[in-house]
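Hi W., the iron/sulfur cluster complex you wanted:
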Amino acid sequence: MALEDYLSDAKRCCRCSYCKWIPLAQVKSWRFAKGCPSIAYKNFHSYSAGGRLAVVLSLSEGRSSYTDGLLDVVYQCQMDGSCDVACKICRYHMEPLEAMRELRFKLVEEGQLLPQHIPVIDNLRKEDNMVMKPKAERGKWSEDLDIKDLTTESAEVVFHGGCQLGFDEELGKVARTAVTLLKNAGVDIGIIRGKEENCCGGKAYDMGYRGEFIKYAENNIEAWTRAGVKTVVTSCSDGYFTFKRLYPDIGSKFEVLHTVEFIDRLIKEGRIKFNKTIPMTVTYHDPCHLGRLGEQYIPWQGEEKKIRGQIVVYEPSKPRNNGAGGIYEPPREVLRSIPGLELVEMERIREYAWCCGAGGGVREAYPDFSYWTARERIEEAKSTGAEALVSACPWCERNFIDAVNGNGDKMKVYDVIELVQQAI
Ligand code: SF4
Ligand code: SF4
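Structure:
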């Protein structure tokens, strides 16, 4: 697709502002009614999906040009897709998120780069990771782990650690625990060890660097094919989205599972059993890339027609990608199956979840906005009375841990897998 394919969406946008809120039927309180972090933080229409569609239109019609202000509007956005879900409540088939993606691709292709992203992408090109680290430091979590190395061996399942788990000394244990649990349950699993593992390319894609995404997708698909892999498993929700939703366009045919899906399956098959009780009340944060963006995306190609010059119809009919098919139950089922654990829900959950603040290159470019977004979620978690905030994505968890520490909160932050391990 290209930006031109979304011009008709930009024209259909009626400035209703649904995209700024969670759908009205889902609102439980004024405090947690907002859906879009960007407009909530900046409080100016341009910093919303509707505002960005206006930018798409004015750029395409030559009514505006590239300025620092325009770059700011385009990039102070988490690319989390809450707007897209809310917009579809009324305009079933509009795709503001896809339009905003194409806008970023266009800016990058035309050399309109956000200065804060340049060193991140330079490091990616040189060191194959998105966290500004030398590649030699990757994968310390697996250094002494007895597990197949798929650079020389083969296995049915590959576990992809990804950039955040691959370099984060505190969170590396999540990858180590996940791989160990799956191996102990009898899964034929391996990893691309150490610095040989590559970035998935998904964060670069979200920042607008489509070329980098394609390069990493091709490298990973080749490495997995060489190792005879059938299933790709990851604990990283960004990676999950990238492998499941984006890689098929590059020819990938692998089954893709998030760890929580695999663990849920193993618990139900009796291959993981709990022996300990965890007396704790927790709340679960749906990562955007596992939830609303983690559903199977059905692309559409066809013709848009107007009846009586006004009513838009699509031939063939257009699928409605509204996030309802995301991965919501497996992590909750896992948490509910842990003896003693009580799961209480926040107000904004599932496809209406508030973003963690680490998406779309915002953590890298606008740390204050990223921190504020995470703080908002922590306040929502605190309002449930939970002792811990649990998630299934290391990017969310890192942002939450930093925001909790920055404020001196008592809230603990866990990955689902850590609680599973504690209960075995
Ligand atoms: S993007 Fe959708 S929800 Fe937002 S103002 Fe436009 S039509 Fe309304
Ligand atoms: S992707 Fe997120 S931050 Fe960007 S416009 Fe949509 S809801 Fe707002």
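The chain has a mean pLDDT of 96.

W.
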